[in-house]
Design goal:
The chain is an all-alpha fold. It contains 18 helices and no strands. The protein has 2 domains: 248 residues, no CATH class; 134 residues. The longest helix has 33 residues. It is globular, with a radius of gyration of 23 Å.
Amino acid sequence: MTKTQINLTWHLIILLPFTYVVGIAVTELFTLLLIIFFLLKNRHNFYLKEKKIIILLLFSIYVGLNAIIQIADKDLYISSIFYFRFLIFSTAILFFFDNFENEIIQKKSIFKTIFIFFFIIFFDVLFQFFYGNNILGFELPYDRVSSFFGSKLVLGSFLFTVFPLFLWLIFFYKYEIEKNRIFLIIFFSLYLICVYLSGERTSIFLTALYFISLIFFLPIIRKYLILSILFLFLFIFLTSIFNVGKANTFNRVFVKTFNQFTDQLYTEEKKGYTQEQLIESRKNIHKHIKIFSNDHNGHFILAYDLFKKKPLFGSGPEGFRYHCRNIEFDSEIGICSTHPHNFFFQLLSETGLLGIFFYISILIFIFVKFFDVYKRDIDLYKKNCFLVISLYIFFKLFPLLPNGNFFNNWISISIYYFIGFYFYTYNKIFKE
C-alpha cells in the first residue's frame, strides 16, 4: 500500500464511530470497506491460531447455527448467520495495525480531525440544552438533549463509545499530557457535561464507573479527570440552582431515579398501612423490589421464562421478539419488546447456557488479562493503551445494567471495533 492509501485507511478506522451521527448505513458501509480491504490483502493468515480470536469465532458460529435451527423468521436468522462479519471487522483492524503500524503518520491531522468532530458535538449539545433546539433545528425530544440524533435518545451511549478512542489515541501517539493539561481538563469536563445532559442514566453510570477506574489505574491523567468531575458538579449545581436550560436533566437523572427506588421499596407506606402491617410487609420486602423499573423487571422475568423453556440453547438470536407474544409467555409482569434490555438476560434467553458460557468467558478473560498487564513493568504508553480499551469493553459488556439489543448492528460494531484495538494492544504486550 502507498502512504496515501495507508493514511486514508487509518482515517477511515479512526473516524468510523463518528459516522453513526450521519446514520447507521454509513457506519456499516465503512465497516464493509474495511472487511473488503482485509479479505483482499490477507489471503493466507486469518489469525485463527490465536486463542482470543478462536473464542469469538466459536461464539459467532454458534450464533449463526442457533439462528438457523431455531428461528423461523427469515429476516431474523439471515441477520444472525452473518454475525461472524463483526469478528472479521475486528480482525481487519488488527491486520492493518500489524502490517502498517510503522507507516502510520499524520499525527497532527488525526488529532485535529477528531477534536473538531468532538467539539462540534459538544457545542451542539450545549446549544440545544440552553436554546431548546440544536444548530440543525432539532427540538428536544421528550425533554431530553439528543443533539444531531434527533428523536433517537442515544447521545450518551454514543459519547461513551467514542471517548475511549480519544484516550487510546493519546497514549498511542504519546501525546504530551502535561504540556496540554488545560486542554485535557476542558475536554474531559465538556465530555462529562454532555453525557450528563443526555439524560441517559445507564451511560451516566457507565461513564462514572469508567472515570473512577481510570482515576485508580491511570495516575498519569488522574488529576485532570478529578478536576473535570469537579467542573461537572459545578455545572450541575449552577444550572439546577438558577434553573437554566430547556431540558430538566437534573429532575430525570436524580429526582426520577430517587423516586423510582423509594416508590419500589416503600409503596406500602403510601397505601396507609399500619405500623404492624408495615413490619409484616417488610419481612417479605423481596417481593416488592423491582430491578430498575417495573418495565425492566417485566422484561427480565419474561426473558427468564423463555430461558426455562430452552435452558441449553435458548430461543435463538433475536428469539425474544419472536416468542414473547406467544400466549404461554403472556403475563402481567412480562412485557413484550424487541429485546430484554440487558445483555445477560438477552443471551440467557436467546442463546442459553452455551451463549452465557462464551459471554462470561470473555469477561473473565478481559478481567484477568487487565490485572496481568496492570502489574507489569512495561512501557507506560503501551500499558495505558491496553488498560483504557480493556476497561471500556468490560463496562460495555457489563451484565448488571440496562443495555440495548446485543445483536443490534451499531452495538455490535462499537463492541467489535474496540475488540480490534484490544487484539492489537494485547499482541504488542504479550507477543513482544
